[in-house]
């Protein structure tokens, strides 16, 4: 049996949905920062973002909005004690900075975003607003 890959261009609705999500999730990732895992959910009244930031206190998390983009950044420094008897065999815990940048749709109310940090998960709720109607210009 031969498997044929599904291509977006063969499925117009999938392509339309994919293009919309690509625009919403258009990311700009800094080379010096690790990516934080996120979930983006949409409901009728808001967009909800959940970001994993275990072990990072809220004082080390920064959320900013510029040019219809939301930037979530955090830093985590680990204090390491050197002991003569200890030999590091494997270390996987990351110490440094995390950052995610997401493009927001036009119907987001960026003035009323709420944020909450609970059990290492940052939850953002971005309310939706009514889209402004397009202004039509009459030619004289």
In words, what does this structure look like?
There is one protein chain. The chain contains 1 helix and 7 strands. By secondary structure, the chain is mainly beta. It has a domain at 30-78 and 94-130: Immunoglobulin-like, CATH 2.60.40.790. The longest helix is centred in the first third of the chain and has 13 residues, at 12-24. It is elongated and about 85 Å long. The model has no long low-confidence stretch (mean pLDDT 79).
What is CATH's topology name of the domain at 30-78 and 94-130? Immunoglobulin-like
Count the helices. How many? 1
Within the largest sheet, what's the order of strands? 1-2-7-6
User: What is the rounded Rg?
Assistant: 21 Å
**What proportion strand?**
25-35%
Query: Can you write the helix and strand succession as a string?
Result: HEEEEEEE
Question: Alpha-carbon distance between the termini?
Answer: 64 Å
In the CATH hierarchy, the architecture of the domain at 30-78 and 94-130 is: Sandwich
Please count the beta strands (DSSP E, at least 2 residues each): 7
Low-confidence stretches: none
Q: Largest sheet at a glance?
A: 4 strands, antiparallel
SS-derived structural category: mainly beta
- CATH class placement of the domain at 30-78 and 94-130: Mainly Beta
- Average pLDDT for all residues: 79
Global shape: elongated
Q: Percent helix among the residues? A: under 10%
Which terms would index this structure?
140 residues, 9% helix, mainly beta, 7 strands
